[in-house]
Amino acid sequence: MTISIVLADDHPVVRRGMRTVLESAPDFAVIGEAGDGLDTVRLVGRLRPEVLVLDLMMPGLNGLEVLRIIRERSPRTRVLVLSMHSGKEFVAEALKQGATGYVLKGGSEENLILAMRETAAGRRYLSPPIKQRAIEAYVEQARTTRLDPYETLTDREHEVLQLAADGKTGSEIAAHLHISHRTVETHRAHLMQKLGLHNQSELIRYALRRGLISLEG
Amino acid sequence: MTTELERQLASLKQGDHVCPIYESVAEQLAVAIPFISQGLARGERCVYVADQRSSEQLAQALAETGVDIASESARGALRFLTKHETFLVEGKFEPREMIDLFGLEQTRAVENGFSGLRVSGDMSWVLGSEVTPEKLVEFEALLNKFCGSCRCVVVCHYDRTRFPAAVIQEVLRTHPVVILGEQVCPNPYYEPPEFILSTMTTASPEFTAKRVDWWIHQLKRARSAAQEREQVLRQLDTERARFEAVLRQMPAGVAIVKAPSGNAILGNEQLQRIFGETVRGLRNLRDYKRFPVFYPDGRPYPFEEWPAVRAITTGEEVLDEELVIVRGDGASRTLRVSSTPIRDRAARVIAAVVTVFDATEQRRSRAASKRHTDQLQGLAEASVTIQSRESPAAVAQEVTEAARQIVGAHLAGTSFLIDVDWAQAIQAVSLSEKYATLRGSNVLPDSSDIYAVVCETNRPLRLTQSELEAHPRWRGIAKEAGRQPPLRGLLAAPLMARDGHNVGLVALSDKYEGEFTPDDEAILIQLTQMASVAIENAWLYEREKAGRERLQTLSRQLLEVQESERRHLARELHDEVGQLLTGLRLLLSPNAETAQSRVEQAQAVADELLEKVRGLSFDLRPAALDELGLVPALLALFERYRDETGVLVNFKHQGVDRRFTPEVETTAYRIVQEALTNVARYAGAAGVNVRLWTVQGVLNLQVEDRGRGFDAEAVLAARQSSGLAGMRERATGVGGRLTIESSPGAGTQVMAELPFRQGGQETKK
Question: What is the pTM (predicted TM-score) of this model?
């Protein structure tokens, strides 16, 4: 049973090298080549190969875009990304967009053939030195984290927030911190913006909720 | 002093034949003495005919009035004769011979150089003599004829108490003028000599007819004389009324002052207005001294130099002298005074006319007009100096100085607004000589709340001291008292930017004289307008200059950065890549070891080369930033950073896992990169917090460490750090801003706010 393959890379030299390596295996059939993103999308749509070998850096459509489109239009075509980039961010992004395998350019021929077989079989393949666990850790890190706006306040803003919550006026805060009244107002405006507060009573409520002040005080 | 009688006697002239009819010796001497004195004064030969006793009395009386009897007698001007030497030559009285003798005496007197002959005779010698009344009358009648045609004046004294009435009656018929007491009277009972000497009997009809003619003629003459006098009086009244009307209408004050007393006998209403009182109180010269009088330059005007005093004491004619008088009510007036003496016929000063013109207003308006000219000139000069100053502080100094000098006040100050609370910082102070000792010391006018009123309302303020103290925003100067000059009234005007918002004020206090006027206010407004423009220009100039300098510094720093990056790249390419390629080339040379090991070695070197080139490429610009976006690029950066520096990055983000414009992404990435580099280099911290989040179209990023910290303000002000300046420049380049908060020992926080929406819409790219 032959595996039909389309090669997409903007460098003809790379394509020729790939074809040579892949056609050395009897069950691989390279049925098409494309030099840019748009051609790749069209060609894959027409040929419906089992595996697309895709370079992430291509003129026209970016490789990641191509990957996303193909996942929609030709969901049965599996994608093996062939990239210069060994960075986890690229690997993670490619996998997120639906790539099955990820190999680095400059890797060994055996590695490439192994990656092709695994990809065609629908199994994830990452070429060394890329590690599956590192990618998972990266994805975890890249996920949006809950950011408490309170921790973005500067020390000054903390002080101003506390004094304002204590009911001190701008002039009193200025005198207390030995800074100008205008500076106090700037800090106050910044911290209210960071915390999404709009007036003094919201500020008091926030301070109560966070335990900066208490009703007994 | 001249008596009325003396005055009337002085009107007697040559040709007159007069008889005083007296009742006492004193009365007789009162006529005889001045008659002789006046004759001596006129250069006439004076002859007194009387008995011994009467002559001695007269001589003594004359000597008492200052006549030198001996010398006057020696030069023949004064002669005392007895009846025997004159009337009774050879013991008998012959009228016609007597007249001839008079004629001879008169001729001799003229020949001897006298202006004429003056004869005074006491006729008492007739009593007890053989002279008959008929002869006496004939003599007197002949004397009338004689006197009418010669240079001789004759006075015949008759003692009414000793002569019989019949004789006195004849005496009245033969003298055209009689002297009674102190009056010299024309005599209506006089009859011409022809009547007296006529041979006709007085009872004859012809004589009576002639006498009636004469009497009617006399009556008519008396009547016309009376009419004439009445007419003259009427004319005098008219003249007087006209004179008084003129006096009233005159714009000048006029007074008539009698000499030598100084008694002011007349003063018009204008004079009263000028002096603030009537002249009735001025009875003598001493009364004048109660007015203090000065020259216009302020020196006291000596009393004896006053125009009126000079006119009546020395007869000087004084014209238009300017003097300043302080009135009883304390007001001072500038007067122009003229004074002209009035003289009698004898050229003696009897009074003076004083005219007084009130030049106070004229002088004041002249002074005001000069002041106006000076002020306009001052404004013109100030406009040049103010516009030519390049720094706001220099403009403030100029406008402060100019305002104080042009308006004329002791205190002036200029302050610029520095706070949203209308607080101001004093930029310049100007003090007059009065406060010269306070100059230079750090003494500034009280910055009480009143000035904020000017800034808030953006309108001028003009107050007297009491208005100032009554003002609700006045806070007094108690806390500054003693260290600064006291205020007296206030005039202040705002300084405004071109768009009309307030930038400060110029204030004046303690005007040299009086209170601040609307004119002063207009001047200050003009000055502040000039200064406002100049200050704004100076600000723009300074800002532009600072911007230019900043750009120059920055471009120099950018060149340095670029150069050092190239140096780094060149070193990497040469030292690392070059070395590896050289090694590769050696491995590929034909005369090497076994092919198998060479190929393996060459692959290892190629792998290393690949890794190097990837690293170099990442350093130049991470592909992830373009291909994947900000978060992936940053994550890659953090990993590399941790590997290279050992500093852990604690990354938190919210709402930024998306694409922004390349400018915003690059800016955010480079700022984080630079901040991390600084943390590794200077902070000495084991970890760093990086936070990214979006709020309403703004991408916020924060890089915070708890390391060493530094004096951020000082470093930024010195513009030493290309890194910090570059971060800030990048932030402002996309319309955002960057703040750095740090202090030694307190860590550092770099905070950037980068707007990523334009016009409220998310940019599409």
Answer: 0.48
